[in-house]
């Protein structure tokens, strides 16, 4: 969601005549912030301290993103070097203030590294109506606002016309999507978007186990465009902890969804989030989460230690009773476990042909992209595979996080 916000603001700035440059040469630095964990918030403060040196009377520092809803007033008081505190999505006044200040039409534009436009993020829901007890998102992003289906489809169509080959539909809880004009939920939206001529891939994230509907899995399974990847945060493998988190489901339900998804799409990529050390997490509860990892064999697990976020139910009403060292031990234990699982799982791709959408070149000048199941892929001896091209790759090697293989030209799309 933050990447989508950054892209949105960058697009507006580029359209207004600004260009990206190195910090040393730039007039304006904009920090798009995340406060989902204390560590992310601390990074914002340390970055602002670093920028003190950079700041001059002619230069502008702006802060946007989730920290604005949480600590906007604190920022203004504590960091006088900050010129603008910009709420998410409310960029008009900020852009007007820049326009009054800078003659941005001068200067030589640099190539826009990394901005290939192959994949386009489309927000379909802003905010979240859930109230998970650990989560700051509803406070900083507000309640759900659903974008009309017609507007989503129009944006996707435009993105494809502008060269995008993949669109990613975004919502904090994307499964909750309902068209405000009565045209149905996420499954219908996906059906509409996947029909757009020229669109090669469609992803959506993030799903919620309480809201994901069987119909959506069926649409995925029947489609050549919708990618076979599900981002389905479980957060804990223990029912007592799930209840304390107010997640709204039990493990029995989570298992049933994964079973159904894997029955329909045996090779589906499964990504999850887990928090260790949530208040009240006993050793037995932690072991249930550990056992879940072994049982489910997720492709990717985003692991985090619980940190109380001011303004959440857990921070105000639950004791943060798992000591830091113990949280760290649990985190490291799961990291090591998952590393082994991911390595074993990724190795199963060796010898298979996979479709890769090329996104760019890595630091060794090798084309990279992702397979339909979400895994990163590196193309060795690629010929001239170019960003935006869909190619077939025979997988020769694998690590925990990626597959490496060679181009199969007979089955690949010709370079544009
Ligand atoms: S569903 Fe996700 S975004 Fe919404 S409150 Fe729960 S964790 Fe936060």
Characterize the structure shown:
The protein is of the alpha/beta class. The protein folds into 3 domains: 2-101, no CATH class; 119-347, pyruvate-formate lyase- activating enzyme; 353-411, OB fold (Dihydrolipoamide Acetyltransferase, E2P) (Beta Barrel). The chain has 13 helices and 16 strands. The chain has helices at residues 2-15, 38-54, 66-78, 92-101, 137-141, 149-161, 186-194, 214-222, 239-244, 251-264, 283-296, 313-317, 324-347; strands at residues 28-33, 60-65, 84-86, 119-123, 125-126, 145-146, 166-170, 201-205, 229-231, 269-276, 300-305, 353-361, 367-371, 376-380, 390-398, 402-407. The strands form 5 sheets. Strands 12-13-14-16-15 form a 5-stranded mixed barrel. A 3-stranded parallel beta sheet has the order 1-2-3, sandwiched between helices. A 3-stranded parallel beta sheet has the order 4-7-8. Bound molecules: iron/sulfur cluster. The site of iron/sulfur cluster has 10 residues, from helix 5.
């Amino acid at each position: 969601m933050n990447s989508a916000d950054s892209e949105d603001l960058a697009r507006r700035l580029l359209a207004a005549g600004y260009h990206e440059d190195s910090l040393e040469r730039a007039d304006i630095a904009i920090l798009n912030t995340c406060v989902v964990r204390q560590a992310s918030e601390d990074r914002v403060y340390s970055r602002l301290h670093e920028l003190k040196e950079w700041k001059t009377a002619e230069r502008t520092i702006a802060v946007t993103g989730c920290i604005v809803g949480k600590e906007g007033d604190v920022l203004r008081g504590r960091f006088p070097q900050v010129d603008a505190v910009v709420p998410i999505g409310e960029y008009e006044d900020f852009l007007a203030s820049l326009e009054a200040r800078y003659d941005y039409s001068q200067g030589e534009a640099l190539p826009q590294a990394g901005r290939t436009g192959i994949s386009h993020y489309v927000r379909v829901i802003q905010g979240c109506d859930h109230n998970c007890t650990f989560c700051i998102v509803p406070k900083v992003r507000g309640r759900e606002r659903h974008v009309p289906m017609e507007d989503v489809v129009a944006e996707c169509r435009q993105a494809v016309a502008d060269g995008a080959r993949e669109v990613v539909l975004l919502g904090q809880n994307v499964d909750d999507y309902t068209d405000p004009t009565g045209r149905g939920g996420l499954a219908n939206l996906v059906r509409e978007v996947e029909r757009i001529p020229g669109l090669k891939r469609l992803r959506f994230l993030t799903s919620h186990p309480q809201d994901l509907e069987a119909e959506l899995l069926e649409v995925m399974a029947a489609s050549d465009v919708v990618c076979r990847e599900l981002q389905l945060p479980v957060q804990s493998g223990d029912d007592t902890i799930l209840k304390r988190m107010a997640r709204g489901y039990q493990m029995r339900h989570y298992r049933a969804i994964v079973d159904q998804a894997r029955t329909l799409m045996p090779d589906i990529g499964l990504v999850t989030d887990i928090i260790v050390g949530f208040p009240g997490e006993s050793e037995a509860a932690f072991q249930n989460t550990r056992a879940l990892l072994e049982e489910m064999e997720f492709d990717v697990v985003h692991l985090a230690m619980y940190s109380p976020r001011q303004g959440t139910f857990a921070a105000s009403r639950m004791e943060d009773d798992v000591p830091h060292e113990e949280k760290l031990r649990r985190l490291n234990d799961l990291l090591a476990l998952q590393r082994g699982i991911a390595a074993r799982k990724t190795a199963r791709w060796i010898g298979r042909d996979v479709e890769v959408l090329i996104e760019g070149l890595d630091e060794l000048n090798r084309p990279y992209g992702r397979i339909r199941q979400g895994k990163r892929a590196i193309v060795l001896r690629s010929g001239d595979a170019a960003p935006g091209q869909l190619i077939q790759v025979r997988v020769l090697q694998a690590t925990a996080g990626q597959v490496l293989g060679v181009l199969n030209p007979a089955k690949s799309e010709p370079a544009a």
